[in-house]
TrEMBL record:
SUPFAM superfamilies recorded: EreA/ChaN-like (SSF159501)
Superkingdom field: Bacteria
Natural source organism: Rufibacter radiotolerans
Molecular-function GO term, any one: methyltransferase activity
Example of a GO biological process term: methylation
InterPro entries attached to this UniProt entry: Emycin_Estase, Hydrolase/PRTase-associated, UCP036794_erythomycin
Protein name: Protein-L-isoaspartate O-methyltransferase
Length: 433
């Protein structure tokens, strides 16, 4: 780690304040005319990550004409949010009614009051726009293979009997397994996989997607559900194989889904992406690169001009988080202990215990200081605070991100499935959305 132009104690003077919405002005200026803005998070259960990303997204939509938000979520669940914020026909009365139907663990990632606040703002804003200009909200992830298959079969049986034959063939292949995990377990004893059936389905739907316009975005919904089915099969097959890299399959799928959305929205489209730091921070500047892993941030940088892409990381020193102690375990609020010595988070806290905005290419001292290897905390949906020391990713921070939001002390996100302590809704949005 180089420290010739900045010491730890003098680091704060090179950082920008981050106390209110107006403090985001330098970040908006840095984003400029970029078309891809990727907003990270260091956990899936921290209130401030959601609220700051919401405010950045709101300003990008209002001030820079961004077209949609794409998140690390399941396509079917997020498409229902998308339908609601665009006021499509036959949507639920309230966003809470939409979000309470999210039942895939971890439900708190998207079924939370922070997302409800953003969705309410999006719906209100969209009512001022023409239908074809309304801001969307979509999921990029690959996990909903089974749900996507069922949705597309039901749709095609009504709208396209010829394509429905391919869909039924795919469903018949998957039917004995009943769920994604069972399919992955059964692959070792299965002769042919269901790969051919879902690839035929994807090809057929892509060729005919333009015809599925009887309801808003029907063609897009059919195409991405088919893509999830095809790549989901590949993901679970790779996960079950010795030496397979399911991480790369998942992140490659998310970029493929993203590219499909960008084509759908046209050549002037701009996208805001919400995902964990491990997905949006360029993998080449972490230890992931050494193990052959790629991610969304790296792929988007590689596919587009440098000035078109801005990667924004997030981190905090201590606080609270919603997580589970094991996969499918009950959600609970957990403490996030003070960051370990010499980590990114501990260094920024030691410089001054307050929120900060770091813009690396506008502050050579920061870029130099953070160009070396440091631990950078990453909390997933499974977390055990007593093992926090194992949650640090070796990172070259100023290469991994273009900008970084440091939030010194944070609170837990507010899950919709938990009662907000006697209040109808908790206070979840500090910027007056």
């Amino acid at each position: 780690m180089a420290t010739s132009t900045a010491s730890t104690t003098g680091l704060a003077k090179y950082c920008l304040p981050l106390q209110n919405a107006q403090d985001l002005d330098p970040l908006l200026a840095r984003i400029g005319d970029a078309k891809y803005v990727l907003l990270g998070e260091a956990s899936h259960g921290t209130h401030e990550y959601y609220t700051w990303r919401s405010e950045i997204s709101r300003r990008l939509i209002l001030e820079k004409g961004f077209s949609f938000i794409a998140v690390e979520g399941d396509w079917p669940d997020c498409f229902e949010i998308n339908r609601w914020v665009k006021n499509h026909p036959d949507t639920a009365e309230s966003i809470a009614d939409v979000l309470t139907l999210v039942d895939r663990w971890p439900t708190w990632m998207w079924a939370n009051w922070e997302i409800a606040a953003l969705a309410n703002w999006l719906r209100h804003h969209n009512l001022t726009l023409a239908h074809d200009r309304r801001i969307g909200f979509y999921g990029l992830d690959v996990y909903s293979m089974w749900d996507s298959l069922k949705i597309i079969v039901e749709y095609l049986e009504k709208e396209d009997p010829e394509a429905a034959e391919y869909a039924r063939r795919a469903i018949d292949c998957f039917e004995p397994y009943g769920e994604e995990e069972a399919y992955a377990r059964g692959l070792s004893s299965m002769k042919p996989s269901c790969r051919e059936a879902v690839l035929q389905l994807l090809l057929e739907v892509r060729q005919k997607a333009g015809q599925y316009n009887q309801s808003p975005e029907a063609g897009l919904n059919a195409e991405i559900n088919a893509l999830v089915a095809a790549n989901g099969e590949k993901y679970y097959r790779t996960m079950s194989a010795f030496g397979g890299n399911s991480w790369n399959v998942r992140d490659t799928h998310m970029v493929e889904a993203l590219n499909t959305l960008m084509r759908y929205h046209g050549p002037e489209a701009k996208v805001i992406i919400w995902e964990h730091n491990t997905h949006i921070g360029d993998a080449r500047f972490t230890d992931m690169g050494a193990s052959g892993e790629i991610n969304v941030g790296q792929l988007v940088r590689e596919q587009h001009a440098l000035e078109e892409v801005v990667l924004v990381g997030f981190g905090s020193y201590e606080g609270k988080v919603i997580a589970g102690r094991g996969w499918n375990a009950p959600m609970q609020e957990m403490p996030v202990p003070p960051a370990i010595a010499k980590s990114v988070e501990q260094i920024l806290h030691a410089a001054s215990p307050e929120n900060k905005l770091l813009l690396f290419d506008q502050q050579p001292a920061l870029k130099e200081y953070f160009k070396g290897w440091m631990g950078h905390r990453a909390i997933g949906v499974v977390y055990r605070p007593e093992r926090d020391r194992g949650n640090y990713v070796p990172t070259k921070l100023s290469g991994r991100y273009d900008a970084f939001l440091f939030l010194d002390k944070t609170k837990a996100v507010h899950p919709l499935h938990l009662s907000p302590d006697g209040h109808l809704t908790p206070e979840t949005y500090p910027f007056g959305m």
